[in-house]
Design goal:
Two copies of one chain form a homodimer. With about 80 residues, chain A is α+β, with helices and mostly antiparallel strands. The first copy, chain A, has one domain: 2-Layer Sandwich (Mth169, Chain: A). Helices cover about 35% and strands about 45% of the residues of chain A. Chain A has two helices and three strands. In chain A, strands 2-1-3 form a three-stranded antiparallel beta sheet. The first copy, chain A, is elongated. The termini of chain A are close together. Strand 2 of chain A pairs antiparallel with strand 2 of chain B, so a sheet runs across the interface.
Chain lengths: ~80, ~80
């Protein structure tokens, strides 16, 4: 068993309203960052897990995203990196 | 001016308590993912901005993080990618 560190991005699906992103965009405009357009706010998870291989770790994290971490109706997830920890 | 899409990761500083990460870790254990260890939950922002160059976009986003997006006491930020949108 090896310990892997996995990075996951979970973002609101494109086309859905993202009120938090809108609030950030408005706040940046108020601070003078006029060049800012669309902002999307999602979650960045870093998770340590033991697995036989990087592929097994990725498959396990995929199941975690489907079962708990991401909302399948409103969010997309992406496993960004799997590294030995 | 070119439009750039910038990805930012904002994570709780290592060593600080991350109650959300602890809750996720406990929930994953309850679901049978016993191999999961530490979990850190941060934010993943994707932001569109106009700038003269990728370097200018990165510098601008660095200032946004310092002024608004990240809490300098409890969080670390990392500009993960700057791409033409």
């Amino acid at each position: 068993m090896t310990r892997f560190r996995v990075a996951i991005h979970i973002v609101p699906r494109r086309g859905l309203l993202d009120p938090q992103g809108k609030a950030v965009s408005d706040a940046l405009h108020s601070l003078g960052f006029a060049a800012v357009g669309d902002v999307r706010v999602g979650r960045h998870l870093v998770l340590d897990t033991d697995a036989e291989s990087a592929e097994a770790a990725r498959a396990s994290v995929q199941r975690m995203c489907e079962q708990l971490l991401a909302n399948p109706v409103t969010e997309d997830f992406h496993i960004a990196a799997v590294e030995s920890a």
